[in-house]
Structures
1.
Amino acid sequence: MSLAERYEPTERTTLTRARERATYDQETVHAILDSAYLCHLGYVRDGAPVVLPTLYGRVGDRLYLHGSTGSRPLRMAGEPDPGLPVCVTVTHVDGLVLARSAFHHSINYRCVVVHGTAHPVTEPAEKSAALDALVDHVLPGRAADSRPGNAKELAATAVIRLDLREVSAKIRTGGPNDEPEDLALPHWSGVLPVAPVYGAPVPSDDLAADIPQPAYLSAR
Amino acid sequence: MSLAERYEPTERTTLTRARERATYDQETVHAILDSAYLCHLGYVRDGAPVVLPTLYGRVGDRLYLHGSTGSRPLRMAGEPDPGLPVCVTVTHVDGLVLARSAFHHSINYRCVVVHGTAHPVTEPAEKSAALDALVDHVLPGRAADSRPGNAKELAATAVIRLDLREVSAKIRTGGPNDEPEDLALPHWSGVLPVAPVYGAPVPSDDLAADIPQPAYLSAR
């Protein structure tokens, strides 16, 4: 990475279209990653692509993904080294962009695409920190307010690491780009904003009455 | 497909874990697909996976994706035949599942994974119907209330088709599955629901004052 804190573009992180929407700025990439917790993990199995939704955490310039030691991509990343080529994509949808013409309809979004090779995390301290990061990524503050994994649980959980090196973000904002000759058409034009909204927390049936709702929950 | 309207499981749509969360029911699959509009498209380029967010539409048992004729996966699907092996995944997050133990934290979600080979759509009537389906998938009713693509726009737009054949859905609902010995721990436990919520439509600056907000917008 350059001193400007920018990911170096590579051939595959260079957009072929809408290049003005691309950014390699580290701070922007981290902000997009940190405001989501679900990614889509792509890998190749028997020559064909597989895309699965999964949670992730970030620690510095590393992404961590986890799963059962029995899960296919986690097994594949573990054996044999040198790891599993993956693509991890994180997308926020921010709005539906309605143009007068069908052609110019679009979506406002923020997206990060990470290419690289995932490696298993076996060192206990890194693995434990990765699992904390995964829990805290979903709900900051939650890792410290839950029982940490015991030896059996840690043994049943595989963690893989993906370094943030070959990374790009793509962002679209703003209204529709209608053709000048379409402006007089009688179709509504604009943006319908959309965002994930959290509802009221639903306590477990067996939750003791004296356990208050934690502040980090209300903060969502 | 069987008479029971169920997608036939294959080796790669058979889950290795949490099999009770899998379903191959056609109606369930269609409902998950129809309540989203963004998918993550996976394909293989130079042996490595690529995952990109993109819009889709559904017509019967076919998914349609589109993009610029210059976009890489659309070019790859078009030449050479017999098409591009893809995996298309659609995921809804419905809630954050907070267990007393870090290990049992989870996500409530609905997800559909489609494996198959994408083929270019070149027949004009199918292509036009596919583009209408794409617009209407984002906002039902919108295709009829926008200017259809002209010859130049249609020529600049590539459409690919993916048959729904090798398909699985995976669904998690309900509260956390805490270990019996963890129930007395002093940690809040339950579910934080989450759903996409649409804000007030933002008209384009250049929208004529006499164009009312359409009913299909308010319905979101």
2.
Amino acid sequence: MSSSVVTAGLVVIGDEILSGRTKDVNIATTAQFCTDLAIELREVRIVSDDTDAIIEAVNALRARCTYVFTTGGIGPTHDDITADAIAKAFGVDLPINEEARAMLEARWAETGTPATPARLRMARIPVGADLIVNAVSAAPGFRIGNVHVMAGVPKIMQAMLESIAPTLEGGRKVESRTVPAAVGEGAVGDPLGEIQSRYDDVKIGSYPQMGNTHVMTYLVLRSHDIERLEQATAEVQVLVDRLHAEKNIVLPKEPYV
Amino acid sequence: MSSSVVTAGLVVIGDEILSGRTKDVNIATTAQFCTDLAIELREVRIVSDDTDAIIEAVNALRARCTYVFTTGGIGPTHDDITADAIAKAFGVDLPINEEARAMLEARWAETGTPATPARLRMARIPVGADLIVNAVSAAPGFRIGNVHVMAGVPKIMQAMLESIAPTLEGGRKVESRTVPAAVGEGAVGDPLGEIQSRYDDVKIGSYPQMGNTHVMTYLVLRSHDIERLEQATAEVQVLVDRLHAEKNIVLPKEPYV
């Protein structure tokens, strides 16, 4: 376990997400993956199938984050240009990688699939990159520098994340506590801000949900420092208990997530 | 109907999305909204509740897109800093807006809600901005320049999008056609790339789905030019029919979306 903050950026590549045709699920998967590894996901960008757009996003995020993940655009068709863009971003060539070719050809041999030029596109890997092998697809992703290039198909993306997890260094574990309040954000805003002002090592978020019968506001506290987290949570709980008492609100006792 | 291309960028603001605690739905809503209005959504960025991060994303996108939309961070709590960041990005002050205050106070009067400093934060609007009034919440969003600042709560966000729709100029309508192919991307990659090379006014995308029994690849063609679109679609259909015939595949006749 490291004591430093480890950060990540995610670049989601694909016109189909931006047009609304496909609903992305890789963002939520990656967010949870990072949280589980105590990596702080700092920024996500969704860009179109455009070489310059991909290069700009990857270069911006790889300069400021410990890790960058990309999803999408590594298949065999003409609109799969992620490998080309990454090679260009790093200023390296993009030859057929013999290890990747061997993996693909072994799979193709099993199924009697011919090795067409389009399929061989998937064996093009930037010089200096390591392959990201996965259990679902024979087509590998790759890692170059701090950038991890992965598939857009969710099942394959998840298999690739699991494959790279042991190679990533996690940060200090962030713990969180949630205090549910059956009042609107306006009712807690001022006193919550006052508590936040005394705890700069605890990040307090306020997330309202409009239910069908009443509003709920979930107050989420997050910190590396468990002792300070418990102190701040106790203060927030006192505040919420007071607000509930003022309005004669008694919440059910089941656990909240 | 305009003949030019109208573009948009979306900035989603919120630590809760990046931590995986909340699954975003506003991206898909905005993508569909833009497609319906013939606006091309060019890029999406998800940033944390951090003033500099918000300013950087908004300034980058407002310089290159016809419209920018933001969601999140306009509530009454200390972590709602979007209005502050937008005012800073435009170099203007952020006073209490009397029209916004009147709207909020009218709602508060109905419910006997006191006008606390936290609640009044929601009436702070950058100088020069117009309010975005909506049917669900009394707290308005606002438009300044080409930037539309909206709520993160999905129901309110959707009401605000509906409220601004009549004020937006749409682009030339893009039509799309989908040709389903019961083969993998590798089988269509080369001939599809050849067709694409002869139609630079038609954008052809290839979207594989891993089903439980067999793979499907949806070939989606998009263009402003309906005649060229139909020509390219007919060529892709001939290609897919040939691939299906080679493998004795007969797809069911129900319509695909």
